[in-house]
Specification:
The chain is α/β, with parallel strands linked by helices and 274 residues long. Helices cover 22% and strands 30% of the residues. The protein has one domain (5-259): Nitrilase/N-carbamoyl-D-aminoacid amidohydrolase (4-Layer Sandwich). It has helices at residues 20-36, 57-60, 68-80, 156-163, 190-203, 268-272, and strands at 5-12, 41-43, 83-92, 95-103, 109-114, 134-137, 140-144, 168-173, 176-177, 206-211, 213-215, 225-227, 231-234, 238-242, 251-258.
Length: 274
């Protein structure tokens, strides 16, 4: 039965680059806390297992759903009877992907997404994804994207999820700034607000981006810091919540998701955007 409203946990957790077991242990603790607080779904950051562009992906990534990382998250979902959305590294044959998964409370993977709009500096590690999808659940129709997927030209990828009927887009992220970034001079987040507002307004859907926190110790952005600042927008382009900013802002933020009736696909949305 579809829920009209439910509690969602934005798990803005510390991700330690290359520390798979430590990150999975931390995720288990945070998800357990979220479930105890009444959350029906916990949304975790991009590559929460190893950290974005960390070279450990080359020898510490696993298949989905059979591999260690996915199996661990599936067991956590079953233990706490909660949906989990998480960004993890995936290995398939010789290829490595920046992936996101949606797991149901019974511990089954319902949906997998491979990041399509991967930044060029990450191509040395990750192959690009080639597809999008949504799935109907008792929490509404959910679509997945990952971080810079939202920045695709003219919001192409986000709009596609809207046309597919998404009630809510979940986006594991790894938002980072250089070491000399001054939050007081140019507060972080306007880039994401602009695209989230347009998509949320146009399709009357929810869009939620959850970033990790902590230093980036290897890769193209070595020395940068992931800074949280996770964002949630409700239908109509209204900012519902902004999580704390900072490399040490490890927190769980809760929002109440209220679903609403929306027009059938392919009607007024199409004509408004012509």
């Amino acid at each position: 039965m579809k829920s009209d409203s439910y509690r969602l946990a934005m798990v803005q957790m510390l991700v330690e680059p290359g520390n798979l077991d430590g990150n999975l242990t931390r995720a288990a603790q945070r998800i357990g806390e979220a479930a105890s607080a009444g959350a029906k779904i916990a949304v975790l950051p991009e590559v929460m297992d190893l950290g974005w562009t960390h070279p450990s992906a080359k020898n510490m990534s696993f298949t989905i759903p059979q591999g260690k990382t996915c199996q661990t998250l599936m067991a956590i979902a079953r233990r706490h009877a909660i949906y989990i959305c998480a960004g993890i590294v995936e290995k398939e044959g010789a290829n490595i992907y920046n992936a996101a998964i949606l797991i149901d409370p019974g511990g089954e993977v319902l949906l997998k997404h491979r990041k399509v709009n991967e930044l060029e500096i990450a191509h040395e590690i990750y192959q690009q994804g080639t597809s999008l999808n949504v799935i109907s659940t008792d929490l509404g129709t959910i679509g997945l994207q990952i971080c810079a997927d939202a920045l695709a030209r003219k919001n192409t990828l986000s709009f596609s999820l809207g046309y597919m009927g998404a009630d809510i887009i979940l986006s594991p992220c790894a938002w980072a700034v250089p070491p000399d970034f001054d939050q007081n001079v140019a507060p972080y987040g306007d880039l994401w607000r602009d695209v989230y507002i347009e998509v949320s307004s146009h399709f009357d859907l929810w869009i939620i981006g959850v970033s990790n926190v902590g230093p980036i110790s290897a890769g193209a952005w070595q020395g940068w810091n992931c800074i949280g600042n996770s964002l949630a927008f409700s239908p109509g382009g209204h900012q519902k919540h902004q999580a704390p900013f900072g490399s040490s802002a490890d927190t769980i933020e809760y929002i109440d998701v209220l679903l609403q009736q929306r027009p059938a696909r392919g009607t007024q949305w199409d004509t408004q955007h012509m």
